[in-house]
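Morning F.,

Quick status update on the modeling queue. The single chain you submitted on Monday has been processed. Sequence for confirmation:
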Amino acid sequence: MLGLELITMAFKLRRATASEADAIADVYSASFRLLTFLPILHTIDEYRWFIANVILKECEVTVAEDENGIVAFLARKGEEVHLLYTRPDRIGMGAGTHLIDASKASGIAALELWNPPRSLSLLRLARTPSEIFVIYQNTR
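Structure tokens below.
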């Protein structure tokens, strides 16, 4: 799989709380900075405001955590995944997959996710170069 070795770790998944906005924003900021083909337009304080005042109020946010705290999160509004980010030192260890699987198990009909064209990890997950794609569709 693209020459990358994947390591699976145990993560606890749970609903995010408002008090975790800063920790979630830290994951978002650190991971977003890996998308070097996109300009950095916001400060960490702006990310923190966005997570606290938009994402946590408008989306269902699930976090994956290990013994060191939050390592990944998925923000979903209905079937649309608004944000899915993993802390850089935990990429490839299964947190994002666990978050996707938990969303699929919630009973929703489909999951839609925007994929930046050069996002290797999402291409690996989805196996498609599409910018917008359905990564899960309940056929039951």
